[in-house]
Specification:
single chain; four-stranded antiparallel sheet; 16 strands; mainly beta
Length: 177
């Protein structure tokens, strides 16, 4: 009886190993953290990379396509292009031929602060990044950081972390606390 129980336990473990779809995480990246309108389609930032889906184009980009990381928490699209932001603020730009990505900034990674999922916005040439304790402004045309703020008036963003932003014209609204 003990042998039969051991055999069944071993068989159930082995069957699960062989029956598992090991490549699923590469072919269907989940979860989706952020989405942005892209032409007549959508671009998604996921835990496994970036997916661009239009009526005529459907492609998943992973770390092997120039993203350098699989965990991307935010995407932004505009007339200047498509930008993906990693968990710690690495910024990548979609190449013009749509074959891959090019990292344009790693400067925020050294801070060790995570960005807030789906809280990055592209306004003209400025990409606004919302971190867990600061807000950064990045010029995508010049590929340089413009400004990083850690306080709004007398409110410290380290004490009352930003949750979400909204941009209307030249006004920035920040949801905190």
């Amino acid at each position: 009886m003990k042998f039969l129980r051991t055999f069944l336990l071993s068989l159930s473990l082995v069957v699960q190993c062989f029956a598992a779809d090991g490549w699923r995480v590469f072919s269907t990246p989940f979860p989706i953290y952020s989405a942005a309108k892209y032409g007549n389609g959508v671009v998604y930032a996921t835990g496994g990379g970036v997916r661009i889906k239009t009526p005529t184009f459907d492609r998943v980009y992973t770390a092997n396509n120039g993203l350098e990381t699989a965990s991307l928490l935010s995407v932004a699209a505009g007339p200047r292009g498509v930008y993906a932001v990693s968990e710690y603020g690495m910024i990548a730009s979609l190449r013009g031929d749509m074959e891959g990505w090019m990292v344009i900034s790693r400067s925020y990674v050294a801070n060790g602060r995570k960005i807030i999922a789906d809280a990055s916005r592209l306004v003209g040439d400025v990409l606004v990044l919302v971190f867990e304790d600061r807000i950064a402004f990045f010029d995508v045309a010049k590929e340089k950081s413009i400004l990083t703020i850690s306080r709004i008036a007398d409110i410290s963003l380290a004490v009352y972390p930003p949750k979400f932003i909204s941009i209307h014209g030249d006004e920035l609204y920040v949801s905190i606390g």
